[in-house]
Amino acid sequence: MTEDPRSGEARAERLLRMVCPSRSRAEVLRKLLWIVPWLIFLSAPVEDLVSGPHTTAATVAGCLGLAAFTGIYLTLVFRNMSRPFPGPVVGWLAAVLGVLAVVLSLTLGGHWVGLFVYVSVVCGAAFPLKIAYGAIPLTAVAMLCVVEYDGAGGMWTLLLLVLLIGFAMTGVRQLVHITIELRQARATVAQLAANEERLRLARDLHDLLGHSLSLITLKSELAGRMLPDHPERAAQQVADIEQVSRQALVDVREAVTGYRRPRLSDELAGARVALTAAGVSAELPAEPDLDGVPEESESALAWALREAVTNVVRHSGASRCTVDVFRRQTLDGAFLELSVEDNGSDGPGTGPGNGLTGLTERLEKAGGMLEAGRAKRGFRLAARVPVASGTDIGSPA
pTM for this structure? Predict the structure, then answer.
């Protein structure tokens, strides 16, 4: 059976809490409960100090040496993994630990050889990997020399423990570092997602409010001109303004919640209304063929149509606007293209505005592209999105 990735990740998180600075008494207690079992190899030296045939001076020196050894070990393993010491400090402390292990083992007997296990752990936990891979075998060789000198038994078992535990500690340290990098990556991804959501909301609000407010402005001007002589027609314009305002409010709410996906057919109907209200002669296609077009691509084309019509109404001064939707086969594959062309003399500006920039981002996200610039008889905007390869491809009429 394969291991659940979430259980492995949970173990990594628990291990990370063990080596990171404690933030509460509960974490201190959990860390102590995790550390104590690993001090089992100190039981032999402690028993030797309590019941061994040593003089009082040797016992006191052994206690002091064991306390110094344990303190340096715990400091290097658990403090150094969360807030590393400078390299020279680690080297000196590890050297002191090794010297203590050799001196205590040679002077107090074979019961103290287990200290080399902790020296190996420090080499795996505190040294850079390249140095650790050499220091761990060197620790094993030093232990063999001490065991050979003392004539103690269990040499091969200790040798295996020194090597295995030391190299296992290098893996533990890499796991901790990978977990830390994973947490940092998650924080970065969350920040990028928040930035992307802000950009999406900015694009949606710009496109929604720019179109709706332009239409409201036009209809307000018409109502103002009709009011003295044609109050009934002015009232109709006011009713249209109310309808557009209510729809804009609904659109803004949907955009904020992220649920809005405009449909191209709806935007074509809205474009006809906006262009007619502005006094622009409109030529628009019937219901477009959207077979094989993903929802995201259709949504991007709908936004492109809305932005293009808004620019025609607000900036172009055009008297005629033609909208085409057709399929095109290119070297890059099959595309559905939206073309909006007017005969106005005024373009959208000297450079790409927020609307065109937002459209470019939308289309690129859907795998499409945007072209906008002067045409022979005005200004033309063309937006393309890919379609499924299995659909029939036509050509522009």
Answer: 0.46
